[in-house]
């Protein structure tokens, strides 16, 4: 499995899908988050491997 | 996906530019683009002194980082509004800014503590006003505009820069268009020139970057910014507008950029010409001397007078 963390919540998706597919599964707009794996930014076509831990950083701010 | 410059693994893909870059080339590209926008839109010259309004968030710290990297004389201004929201929001923001500065040469920080100077935090002062009772955002904007202009003017800065990005600008444009706020539309621009009546020149060097791109720059540069949003921004209209625009962007890459740049072109062609002249004449406030359209005493001074008379009751 692949672990994704977003705003303190932890989600799991199966390995082998792209980050973009994972975001779709979590109903997150790819324009509103960035994926970080092992401290590095990843593009949304990156294939997520078994055991990956991906931090999703929200990019929307304002008020 | 591979970096267009060197073929290494890409860190970011910008669909609207059909461009993917690795971390190193992304930093180079981002800084070069900022320099290009500063020149193209005549924001400021190399010898001019820049005051950056910093909040501790990604955009303003990234802007400070870029301007220092490009060799500009750029100082920061942090306005401590006294917002707590259960997470010591203002204190956390200042800690991020101090952390940012600790590892860098050049650039000094002005801190204006609103409660220390005026006797109350912004949320406390806002409770006395009709508009600010539920949410202090309108009062917060008033305080920030006043303090930014005063510090820029008193400090002899040539220009005041903010970290507004394209998503911020497109969301404001979207909201003003939905409501046909022609006066606001006429005044929305990446550069607002200084006025003879005492308003500092204001610029937005990041106005062509998507919010995702400023966040990516901050992450790649290792800038420890405050992820949390202002507690009062929950449910804000501007955030809803951003979400709507991002839904459209997903189907039409480049839509946000096209929307805003098209607006600037239309304005340049005179689409809002009559409205731009509608700005009322400003007079110096009798109390603080800052320009105001509100009569003899500006809204900022009236806010604190109301606060003082509230204390006396």
How many beta-strand elements of chain B?
10
* Greatest chain-chain contact: A-B, 20 and 36 residues
Q: H/E order of the elements of chain B?
A: EEHEHEHEHHHEHHEEHHHHEEH
Helix content of chain B: 40-55%
Give the overall shape of chain A: globular
Strand percent estimate of chain B: 5-15%
**How many strands in all of chain A?**
5
Mean pLDDT of chain B: 92
Assembly state of the chains shown: heterodimer
Taking the sheet with the most strands of chain B, its summary is: 6 strands, mixed
The outline of chain B comes out as globular
What is the straight-line distance between the termini of chain B? 66 Å
Q: In what range is the share of β-strand residues of chain A? A: 35-45%
- The run of helices and strands of chain A is EEHEEE
Give the % helix of chain A: 10-25%
Supply the number of helical segments of chain B: 13
Which strand order spans the largest sheet of chain B, edge to edge or round the barrel? Answer: 5-4-3-6-8-7
Question: What is the gyration radius of chain B calculated from CA atoms?
Answer: 20 Å
Describe the 3D structure.
The complex is a heterodimer of chains A (63) and B (313). Chain A is mainly beta. In chain A, 11% of the residues lie in helices and 38% in strands. Chain A has one helix at residues 19-25, and strands at 2-6, 9-13, 33-37, 40-42, 53-58. Chain A has a 5-stranded mixed sheet with strand order 2-1-5-3-4, with helices on one face. The longest helix of chain A is centred in the middle third of the chain and has 7 residues, at 19-25. Chain A is globular, with a radius of gyration of 11 Å. The mean pLDDT of chain A is 95. With 313 residues, chain B is an alpha/beta fold. Chain B contains 13 helices and 10 strands. Chain B has helices spanning 23-40, 58-69, 89-102, 114-118, 122-126, 137-154, 166-178, 182-187, 211-220, 237-251, 255-268, 273-276, 299-312; strands at 12-14, 19-21, 49-53, 73-80, 109-113, 159-161, 191-192, 201-203, 283-284, 291-292. Chain B has a 6-stranded mixed sheet, with helices on both faces. In chain B, strands 1-2 form a two-stranded antiparallel sheet. In chain B, helix 2 (58-69) packs across helix 9 (211-220) and helix 7 (166-178) crosses helix 11. Chain A binds chain B through residues 29-32, 34, 36, 40-46, 57-63, and chain B through 1, 10-13, 20, 23, 57-59, 137, 167-168, 171, 210-212, 214-216, 219-220, 227, 229-230, 232-233, 236, 238-239, 242-243, 246-247, 249-250.
């Amino acid at each position: 499995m692949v672990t994704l963390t977003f705003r303190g919540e932890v989600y799991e998706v199966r390995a082998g899908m792209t980050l973009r597919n994972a975001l779709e599964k979590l109903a997150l707009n790819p324009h509103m988050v960035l994926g970080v794996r092992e401290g590095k930014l990843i593009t949304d076509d990156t294939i997520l491997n078994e055991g990956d831990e991906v931090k999703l950083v929200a990019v929307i701010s304002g008020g | 996906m591979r970096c267009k410059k060197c073929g290494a693994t890409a860190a970011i893909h910008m669909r609207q530019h059909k461009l993917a870059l690795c971390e190193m080339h992304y930093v180079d590209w981002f800084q070069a683009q900022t320099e290009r926008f500063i020149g193209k839109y005549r924001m400021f010259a190399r010898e001019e002194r820049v005051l950056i309004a910093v909040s501790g968030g990604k955009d303003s710290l990234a802007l400070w980082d870029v301007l220092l990297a490009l060799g500009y004389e750029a100082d920061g201004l942090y306005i401590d509004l006294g917002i707590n929201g259960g997470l010591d929001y203002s204190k956390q923001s200042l800690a991020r800014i101090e952390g940012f500065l600790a590892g860098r040469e050049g650039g000094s920080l002005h801190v204006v503590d609103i409660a220390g100077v005026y006797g109350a935090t912004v949320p406390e002062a806002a409770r006395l006003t009709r508009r600010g009772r539920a949410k202090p955002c309108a009062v917060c904007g008033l305080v920030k505009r006043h303090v930014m202009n005063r510090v820029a003017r008193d400090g002899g800065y040539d220009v005041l820069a903010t970290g507004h990005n394209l998503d911020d600008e497109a969301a404001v444009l979207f909201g003003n268009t939905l409501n046909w706020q022609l006066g606001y539309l006429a005044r929305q621009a990446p550069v607002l020139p200084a006025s003879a009546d005492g308003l500092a020149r204001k610029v937005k060097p990041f106005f062509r970057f998507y919010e995702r791109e400023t966040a990516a720059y901050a992450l790649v540069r290792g800038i420890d910014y405050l992820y949390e949003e202002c507690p009062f921004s929950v449910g804000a209209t501007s955030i809803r507008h951003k979400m709507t625009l991002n839904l459209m962007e997903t189907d039409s890459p480049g839509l946000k950029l096209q929307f805003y740049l098209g607006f600037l072109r239309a304005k340049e062609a005179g689409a809002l010409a009559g409205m731009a002249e509608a700005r009322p004449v400003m007079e110096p406030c009798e109390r603080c001397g800052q320009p105001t359209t509100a009569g003899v005493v500006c809204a900022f001074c009236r806010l604190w007078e109301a606060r003082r008379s509230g204390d006396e009751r």
